[in-house]
Design goal:
Length: 240
Amino acid sequence: MEKKSISVCIATYNGELYIEEQLKSILKQLNENDEVIISDDGSTDRTIEILKSFDDPRIKLHHSSFQNVILNFENALQKATGEIIFLSDQDDIWFKNKVVESLKVLEKNDLVFSNLSVFSNEVAENYNMYDLNKNCNGFVRNFIKNNCVGATMAFKSKVLKYAIPFPKHIEMHDMWLFFITSFYGKTFYYKKPLIYYRRHGLNVSNTGEKTTNSIIKIIKIRIRMLVAILKRIVKMTFYS
C-alpha cells in the first residue's frame, strides 16, 4: 500500500531549548515528499536560527504574530498539504514507531490520539500519563473529562473541512478537533505511548484536564464547546 503524504504541524514560540531534539525525532520518520509546517509566533530567542540550521526542504517555516497558540496552530494547519496531518508540540520527543503505528490506525479511522510518557529531566525517568488498561476514547467520556492530548494526535486531512476555521473562545484546539471528528468521523485511542512529553513548567498544551480548573470553569468550557459544535453542524448542514 502506498504511503500517504504527511504534514507535521508545529506551533513554535521561543522553543530554542528543545526544538532541535524534537525535529530530529520527527524528520527521521518522514519521506522526502512529506513536510513539517512550522508557524512561529514571533520567537525572540534562537528558535528561527535553529530551524534554518537544519537546511531541510521538508521544513516550511511561516511567521505569525498572533501571540495565541490556538491561532498559531490554525495557521500551520491551513498551510498543510498532506493527506495525513500530525500535530506536534515544540518540546517533546516522538517514539520511533509513532508514524508507522499512527498510519496503521488511520487506515480504518479518521483520527488517532495516544497515551504519552511524561518526563521532566531525563527521558529514562518517565511514566505513562494514563493506565494502559484505560480507554480514553469516546465523545461522552472526553466531554466529561478531556483525555485527548493534541501533541499525540494524527488525522486525515478531510477533518479540516469540518474543523477549520477554529471557533472563537474555545479552550484548546485539540478538544475541538477531537469532538468535531467524533461527530463526522471515527476516532481511535492508542493505549500505548507514542511520544515522550516533556514537562518543564512552561508547557502551553494541556495534558488532559487541568486539575486546577474549578468545576464551574470546566462546565463553562464544555458549554462553549457544545455551542461551537452545534453551530458548526448547522453551518455545514445548511450553508455548505
